[in-house]
Design a protein that fits this description.
Elements: H1 7-12, H2 27-32, E1 33-37, E2 47-52, H3 61-70, H4 72-79, E3 89-93, E4 101-106, H5 115-135, E5 140-143, H6 155-171, E6 180-185, H7 188-201
Parallel strand pairs: 1-6, 2-4, 2-5, 5-6
Antiparallel strand pairs: 3-4
Helix pairs in contact: 5-6, 6-7
The protein binds adenosine-5'-diphosphate (ADP).
Adenosine-5'-diphosphate binds near residues 40, 61, 107 and 145.
């Protein structure tokens, strides 16, 4: 985790800045945010978030990768959770993963015409995940781009929500305990979306 560049370092190396920031600079965010292209199962963090489904028993995409890498014990613990509703999150241990906890957040399946409802559910995944991180003394957390794979959420819209909810958390009373937030993207294309939008929510000084 300490090897990954922070947003401050990325700005210093010339990342382009949005002409229309939505907020003022939040200096501490520059030192704790990272956009990292990689496999979330390799992240060594207090918590990684899983883009789970309502069963919480594993599935495709990042969910499948996390269950494979964590091992059968994760599945056994997940069986005891009794599932979760869309927008909710539940926490488990991380077993063979290098992280300590997995926060299983159930993202919405994107449906055109229900944008507001879906946006609220996706936002809730982020706030619920941060709340569980705080309750479990997790000072570092890595998020995949929830719902933007099999669940079909448009990447840019989902990224706005991820960044906005992170901003709100970091500004709030519980944000003070967080030391690292990593947005784990799985392709160069997704990385470009995060790098394009990050300065709207986290402008440099
Ligand atoms: P959902 O069902 O919520 O859409 P997916 O797993 O299909 O979940 O996709 C969510 C995001 O996770 C996508 O952007 C996908 O590219 C990404 N992804 C898939 N595998 C991994 C992985 N091992 N590490 C990080 N991100 C991943």
């Amino acid at each position: 985790l300490s090897a990954l560049p922070t947003l401050r370092q990325v700005y210093a190396s010339g990342l382009s800045i949005s002409p229309s920031p939505r907020y003022k600079c939040l200096p501490k965010a520059l030192d704790l945010l990272t956009i990292w292209k990689g496999d979330i199962t390799e992240l060594e963090s207090d918590a990684i978030v899983n883009a789970a489904n309502k069963s919480l028993l594993g599935g495709g995409g990042v969910d499948g990768a996390i269950h494979r890498a964590a091992g059968d014990e994760l599945y056994e613990e997940c069986k005891s959770l009794g599932g979760a509703n869309t927008g909710e999150a539940k926490i488990t241990r991380a077993y063979a993963l290098p992280s300590k906890h997995v926060i299983h957040a159930v993202g919405p399946v994107y449906v055109k015409g229900k944008e507001d409802e879906k946006a609220q559910q996706l936002a809730s995944c982020y706030s619920a995940s941060f709340a569980l991180a705080v309750q479990n003394q997790c000072k570092s957390i890595g998020f995949p781009s929830i719902s933007t794979g099999i669940y079909g959420y448009p990447m840019a819209d989902a990224t706005h929500i991820a960044l906005d909810m992170t901003r709100k958390f970091l500004e709030g009373p519980e944000g003070a305990m967080m030391e690292r937030v990593v947005f784990v993207v799985f392709s160069e294309k997704d990385k470009a979306v995060y790098e394009d939008l990050v300065s709207v929510y986290f402008p440099p000084e």
